[in-house]
Amino acid sequence: TVTQAIAAQEASRRNNNWLPPPWAIVAMIVLGFNEFMTLLRNPLYLDVIFVGFLLVKALWVQLDVSGEFRNGALPGLLSLSTKFLPTVMNLLKKLAEEGQRHGNSNTQQNPPLASKSFRSGASEYGGVSSSASSEVTSAENGTEYSSPAHGKVK
């Protein structure tokens, strides 16, 4: 029995490889080629995957998943199910507060410009008025043009 136990342990050590068999690696490469090409064509998917990974990692740390499962699977699942929604809401609230804080710091750095009308802006910058070109007279054929405010058209 001791010899059988030692042989079983050695066989277990040889088979305790974390890599899948070579045929499975080749199958993953062949079958996953279209997903790889999708990521190359549209790298926005990588951003979405990365943000999803960060959110899952934050939830994992906040919920202390490995600590909850020390007492067993069922107590861990029950404990996590009661903590999941409050933890998600807390993370979303922190993200919203951080976004508001970042938004408020941007408005303090860049104060809004005062809006000015064109006429007040024109008078401030050199006194150029647009009414100077409203009355134009052509002396060649005797036709006189005027702005609509004056009402002259010949």
Automatic annotation (TrEMBL):
All residue ranges annotated as the Sey1/RHD3-like three-helix bundle domain in the record: 5-98
Positions of region (Disordered): 96-154
Record-level Gene Ontology MF annotations: GTPase activity
GO cellular component assignments: endoplasmic reticulum
Domain of life: Eukaryota
Biased composition (Polar residues): 102-112
Record-linked InterPro entries: RHD3/Sey1 (IPR008803), Sey1/RHD3-like_3HB (IPR046758)
A single GO BP: endoplasmic reticulum membrane fusion
Record-linked Pfam families: Sey1_3HB
Protein's UniProt name: ROOT HAIR DEFECTIVE 3-like
Organism: Coffea canephora
